[in-house]
Design goal:
globular, Rossmann fold, alpha/beta, binds S-adenosylmethionine, single chain, S-adenosyl-L-methionine
Length: about 180
Amino acid sequence: MASPMRSLLTNPDRYLRSFRLFLEKSTEHQSMREFMERQLPDVIASIGNGKSTINVLSIGGGAGEMDLLILSKVQARYPGVPINNEVIEPSADQISKYKERVAQTSNLGKVKFTWHEETADEYESRMTAEKKSKKWDFIHMIQMLYYVKDIPATVRYFHSLLESQAKLLIILVSGT
Ligand SMILES: C[S@@+](CC[C@H](N)C(=O)[O-])C[C@H]1O[C@@H](n2cnc3c(N)ncnc32)[C@H](O)[C@@H]1O
């Protein structure tokens, strides 16, 4: 039987309403913002050392709220270094909101955005079919692992795409 989370995804409007309601009622984004302010700078402290471009992969980036916060921290750590930010996001509506957010944000001149309208599994299958294994300096999966078919396999695949000094950030809501 499909899980309640998965059935939400088959109805994008209902999913987005539910997610917005969840954000309003929970302290989730507030907690994540605190993490981004206090701990992320240490996490990304060495990801771009010696790099001419920093490659960031966002998996399930949604409307980009957390992504842009992350990018601002990478820019603060590596001022002037170009950033290649690619987003794997299956919802066209979320991608459109993400693009609006980028358009309304200043100081993103050195950031190149690419959106892939597909799931994490579809990205892996496409890369495998095209015999590509692009490496990344920072990969993040924020509040999205609930939706993949096989969590360990997904984490293993994206972990294999990390550069030597790179980091993989996973954020999930805990039961408590
Ligand atoms: C709860 S939202 C989190 C969005 C954003 N990371 C944040 O924290 O604000 C989960 C996102 O994952 C996306 N998603 C759902 N299934 C996915 C999959 N199999 N692969 C990649 N992204 C997925 C959804 O469309 C949604 O934008």
